[in-house]
Specification:
By secondary structure, this protein is of the alpha/beta class. It is 54% helix and 10% strand. The chain has four domains: 91 residues, DnaA, N-terminal domain (GMP Synthetase, Chain A, domain 3, 2-Layer Sandwich); 150 residues, P-loop containing nucleotide triphosphate hydrolases (Rossmann fold); 76 residues, Helicase, Ruva Protein, domain 3, CATH 1.10.8.60; 91 residues, DnaA protein, C-terminal DNA-binding domain (Chromosomal Replication Initiator Protein Dnaa, Chain: A), CATH 1.10.1750. Strands 5-6-7-4-8 form a five-stranded parallel sheet, with helices on both faces. The protein has a three-stranded mixed sheet with strand order 1-2-3, covered by helices on one side. Strand 6, helix 8 and strand 7 form a beta-alpha-beta unit. The protein is globular. About 6% of the residues have low confidence. The structure holds adenosine-5'-diphosphate and magnesium ion. Adenosine-5'-diphosphate binds next to helix 5 and helix 12.
Length: 453
């Protein structure tokens, strides 16, 4: 059965990824009736697989055996980890709600916080500066100036990150404060549990004794009437005591359907800020800060600016995908022991890049570049090697490499049948010149913007 499943996985995630990550897994058996245990050669592989393919793998395994609830990756011969650890991997935000399994009978106060989600690691740019400033203000823990703070924005734009950051900062600055962070789903779960165990008094007491309450993804309670009701009472009790509340949602309060009007207007009564979709600069900043944080983990790996720029251009969906791509790139490069080149990047991230293909064509780039430098298209592509044509040609090649998914030989072909080494040389040359020659740097930037507009 595991064999058949392996085949299926290989076609979903691609031959290379399959060979690197899934093939080394060895199915060990089912434990406790619901944990599928895999042996892995190293902890690193276990962690990586769990973070990147955990959900996929689980859904496949569960389709074979519907008793299976979770996966565990264990280095062969290593002792069985504590029953309290649901996955061998470091906790990912998605895995965390399950981390509370062990204490199911307590009305657990706060959901675990991700150690990586701090203000230090949050990169501020135009799209999120307001949200960041508001979160910072709340994290000072001083007088309550707006209540609630309502943060909203699309998936992966940093809402959860900011809320955890507030928690962390409050814990250091004001250890005396009782700060409670949880998702709306966990709120409901605890509410239902309290009902079932006839512990509503405990529940109310617990929630009314916090100093700062943060509820993530509040859109979840839409349409869930009794949970909404309880949420409303909790909310009011805290506001009355002048306790700070922070709420997040994937959309603005008036766009959440099936939400009681009185709750909606409560949510709007404080400060409502949105996180805008990332722009190129912010994405690049996030990538750079990620790379810095990898220095210690992968001291031998260098990644040059061109590759980060390429990723920031090409992956514009959400930050989680962007980070995932970089993580995979580093893990892959270190595993195969190769430097991070453009080839390796495109190879290793083919699926991600395909999914977010912006479809800028080589012709388009050539046309724009020729126009920009005021030369004829035929001269840009043609054989003449005079500087007036050669430099724009290199700029065009560079942009083709950055903005399209075409390979070097393919680009060479489209530039009058040039060799891929010529293209590579051109790309390198512009990369160098960009840091030395501000005119070239400006040209490239201007053209890129024009092409992406
Ligand atoms: P949301 O809750 O809005 O769906 P998250 O807060 O979970 O998004 O963010 C998704 C991922 O992107 C997290 O790993 C987070 O650290 C990262 N991230 C998002 N925005 C930023 C940012 N401005 N700086 C650094 N990391 C960010
Ligand atoms: Mg979130």
């Amino acid at each position: 059965q595991w064999g058949a499943l392996q085949d299926r996985l290989s076609s979903t995630i691609g031959e290379n990824n399959y060979k690197t990550w899934i093939k080394p897994l060895e199915f060990h058996g089912i434990e406790d009736g619901e944990v599928a245990v895999f042996h892995v050669p190293t902890n690193f592989i276990g962690t990586y697989v769990s973070q990147n393919y955990g959900d996929l793998l689980l859904s496949h395994v569960a389709s074979l055996n519907d008793q299976v609830r979770r996966l565990q990756f264990r280095v062969a011969n290593a002792p069985r980890p504590d029953a309290g650890t649901p996955r061998a991997a470091a906790p990912t935000p998605a895995a965390q709600p399950q981390a509370t399994n062990g204490a199911a009978t307590d009305l657990l106060p706060s959901a675990p916080l991700d150690a990586r989600f701090t203000f230090e690691s949050f990169v501020v740019g135009k799209p999120n500066e307001l949200a960041h400033a508001a979160a910072k203000r709340v994290a000072e823990g001083g007088q309550v100036t707006f209540n609630p703070l309502f943060l909203y924005g699309g998936v992966g734009l940093g809402k959860t990150h900011l809320m955890h950051a507030i928690s962390w900062e409050l814990r250091t600055r004001h250890p005396e404060l009782n700060v409670l962070y949880l998702s709306a789903e966990q709120f409901m779960y605890r509410f239902v549990q309290a009902l079932r165990e006839r512990r509503m008094m405990d529940f109310k007491e617990l929630f009314r004794s916090v100093d700062v309450l943060m509820v993530d993804d509040v859109q979840f309670i839409a349409g869930k009437d009794s949970t909404q009701e309880e949420f409303f009472h909790t909310f009011n009790a805290l506001v009355d005591q002048n306790k700070q509340i922070v709420i997040s949602a994937d959309r603005a309060p008036d766009e959440i359907k099936d939400l009681e009007n009185r709750i909606r207007s409560r949510l709007q009564s404080g400060l409502v800020v949105d996180l805008h979709p990332t722009d190129y600069e912010l994405r690049l900043g996030i990538l750079q800060s990620k790379v810095d944080s990898y220095r210690s983990q992968y001291p031998a790996l260098e990644v040059d600016a061109g590759i980060l720029e390429f990723l920031a251009h090409r992956i514009s969906t959400n930050v989680r995908v962007l980070e995932g791509a970089l993580t995979r790139l580093f893990a892959f490069a270190s595993l195969v022991g190769q430097p991070i080149t453009m080839e390796l990047t495109q190879d290793c991230l083919a699926d991600v890049l395909r999914a977010s293909d912006r479809k800028i064509s080589i012709e388009e780039i050539q046309r724009k570049v020729a126009e920009h430098y005021n030369i004829r298209l035929s001269d840009l592509i043609g054989p003449k090697r005079v500087r007036n044509f050669a430099r724009p040609r290199q700029v065009a090649m560079y942009l083709c490499k950055q903005l399209t998914a075409r390979s070097l030989p393919e680009i060479g072909r489209r530039f009058g049948g040039r060799d891929h080494t010529t293209v590579m040389h051109g790309v390198k040359r512009i990369e160098e010149l960009r840091s030395q020659d501000s005119q070239i740097a400006d040209d490239v930037e201007l053209l890129r913007r024009a092409l992406e507009a």
